[in-house]
């Protein structure tokens, strides 16, 4: 852009940085303990703050991650979440945690966290884990993990964990959001409410309608 200052032409170069950063909102005070949704008079992106004068230590506390989750279900795993819904003090802090228990041959099915990267550490057992990159590459990255091993699942990518051992396994994970969200692929595609039109799914998966009917019936 050319500008005239007095009698001297000056060339001003405008640089546009091609980077955009997005994450949970940063806190603008020491903490912003969340008010329960049922007590909120307005809806906001996140949760509104509790009066700081009413904040107590329990707002930053959760007990129970030492207890195994019940894995008696179809997939043989249980995720115990500790996010802003369990610890109101996590509001605006951009972090949460989970414990994941796996029965022998149990799986945490392919899923994605739309708002968080996950870092997983195995405490007990042997897990086969992996994630798939986005289109068009759809590259699969996998690893066998043993106690003490750590693996990262990038934000938004489909990933899974499978207990390949003959004994129970469990792991802990940290996530880079107070409310990372979870989309389990099979549940979303075949268990949506209302169901996705079978014609859409038969075309997308290139299978017969009876296969789609069977899958939808399971969810």
UniProtKB/TrEMBL annotation:
Family annotation (InterPro entries): Cupin_1, Germin, Germin_Mn-BS, RmlC-like_jellyroll, RmlC_Cupin_sf
**Cystine connections:** 32-49
Its signal peptide is 1-22
Q: What's the superkingdom here? A: Eukaryota
Recite the UniProt keywords alphabetically: Apoplast, Disulfide bond, Manganese, Metal-binding, Secreted, Signal
Q: Which GO terms describe its cellular component?
A: apoplast
Q: What is this protein called in UniProt?
A: Germin-like protein
């Amino acid at each position: 852009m050319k500008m005239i200052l007095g009698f001297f032409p000056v060339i001003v170069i405008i640089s546009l940085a091609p980077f955009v950063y997005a994450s949970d909102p940063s806190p603008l005070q020491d903490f912003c303990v969340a008010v329960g949704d049922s007590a909120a008079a307005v809806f906001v992106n996140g949760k509104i703050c509790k009066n700081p004068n009413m904040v107590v230590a329990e707002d930053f506390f959760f007990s129970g991650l030492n207890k195994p989750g019940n894995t008696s279900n179809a997939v043989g795993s249980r995720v115990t979440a500790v996010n802003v819904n369990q610890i109101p003090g996590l509001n605006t802090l951009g972090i949460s945690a989970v414990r994941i228990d796996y029965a022998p041959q149990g799986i945490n099915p392919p899923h994605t966290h739309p708002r968080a990267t996950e870092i997983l550490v195995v405490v007990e057992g042997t897990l086969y884990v992996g994630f798939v990159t986005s289109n068009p590459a759809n590259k699969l990255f996998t690893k066998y993990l043993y106690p003490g091993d750590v693996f990262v699942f990038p934000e938004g990518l489909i990933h899974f964990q499978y207990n390949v051992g003959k004994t129970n396994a469990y792991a802990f994970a940290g996530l880079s959001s107070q409310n990372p969200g979870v989309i389990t692929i099979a549940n979303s595609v075949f268990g949506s409410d209302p169901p996705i039109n079978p014609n859409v799914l038969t075309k997308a998966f290139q299978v017969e309608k009876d296969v789609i009917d069977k899958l939808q019936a399971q969810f």
